[in-house]
């Protein structure tokens, strides 16, 4: 009888712990930041295997030592590769001058990168310190670029990230930049 | 009898034309430039579907209007993407400072790009005008970078080109740069 009571108590305790764990993970999933990441994935048309990569991409250096600064460097390279690859694939005879002009447009923080990022609403998602304004072009741009590093690492292929960028940017670079 | 002679003459003429065509294509295949492209493909560990892309990558602006200048722009982006992708995949916590340091190393015309290109013997392959010295770092580097644009366009995937670069560069970036 005593052993049976003990067993019952153990099972009850385990169930209680499990339910608390479930509640905790549920709480984590339903935080405003996590909900925003879910929505962002839908906008990107890409679902992460490791959501932590997107979480880091949406974290500014003012918020944490674990931030998106190195990601933004890879992301910028992915964007440059994607743009020049698409333009050269479309016209193998494109002049270096024209190619550089398009690359400058797309790499410009103010005219392209921050525009794309703001359109995705990144200024409302990216985590910054209380003293930092998340709407500045540099913050939005860093977060936008970091997304493509996160996708590259998640899939193991930078081309996948480049394709997501190309789709977001509208395919037709000229018109997207003019937005 | 006359018709038979005519037929015989026609067949002879056709055979002559065919053999000349064969000789011409054979001559093209066995030119020193074409032989060098064959050897280069073996060194790269990559065989082109469209050899014209490698042909263009090995053509300096001083030699022809159809040259490698725009290819070199895409190639430089492919290299930057490949290096930062590999470094971040190996260590997701790499500092932006360290990542930028490695990228500067690999993008430097004198210390890395021209070293890799010269090791491949590109200074002996790249076509330049008689007045141009094909051994200068800028010429070798442009040709080296252009290779990765040519592979990207040939396969439709810049990751394939990035992997060829990574293999050529030795995998361990630190030691390759020190060569």
UniProtKB/TrEMBL annotation, chains A, B:
| Signal peptide as annotated in the record | 1-23
Gene Ontology annotations for the cellular component aspect, listed alphabetically: nucleus
Whether RNA-binding counts among this entry's keywords is yes
Q: Which Pfam families match?
A: Ribonucleas_3_3 (PF14622)
Q: Which residues form the RNase III domain?
A: 37-156
The organism is Vigna radiata var. radiata (Mung bean)
InterPro entries reported in the protein's UniProt record: RNase_III_dom, RNase_III_sf
Q: What is this protein called?
A: Protein NUCLEAR FUSION DEFECTIVE 2
Q: Which SUPFAM superfamilies match?
A: RNase III domain-like
Alphabetically list the UniProt keywords. Answer: RNA-binding, Signal
Q: Name one GO molecular function term.
A: ribonuclease III activity
Gene designation per UniProt: LOC106767502
According to its UniProt entry, the protein's GO biological process terms are: regulation of gene expression; RNA processing
> Which PROSITE patterns does its entry note?
RNASE_3_2
- Superkingdom field: Eukaryota
What Gene3D superfamilies would the database entry show? Ribonuclease III domain
């Amino acid at each position: 009888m005593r052993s049976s009571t003990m067993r019952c108590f153990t099972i009850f305790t385990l169930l209680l712990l499990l339910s608390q764990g479930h509640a905790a993970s549920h709480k984590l999933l339903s935080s405003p930041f996590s909900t925003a990441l879910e929505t962002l994935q839908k906008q990107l048309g890409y679902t992460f295997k490791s959501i932590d990569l997107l979480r880091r991409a949406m974290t500014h250096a003012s918020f944490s030592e674990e931030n998106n600064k190195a990601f933004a460097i890879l992301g910028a390279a992915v964007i440059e590769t994607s743009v020049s690859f698409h333009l050269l694939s479309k016209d193998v005879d494109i002049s270096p001058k024209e190619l550089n002009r398009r690359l400058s447009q797309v790499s410009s923080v103010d005219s392209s990168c921050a525009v794309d990022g703001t359109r995705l609403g990144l200024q409302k998602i990216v985590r910054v310190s209380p003293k930092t304004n998340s709407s500045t072009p540099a913050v939005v741009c860093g977060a936008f670029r970091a997304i493509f590093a996160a996708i590259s690492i998640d899939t193991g292929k930078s081309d996948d990230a480049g394709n997501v960028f190309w789709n977001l940017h509208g395919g037709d670079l000229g018109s997207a930049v003019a937005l």
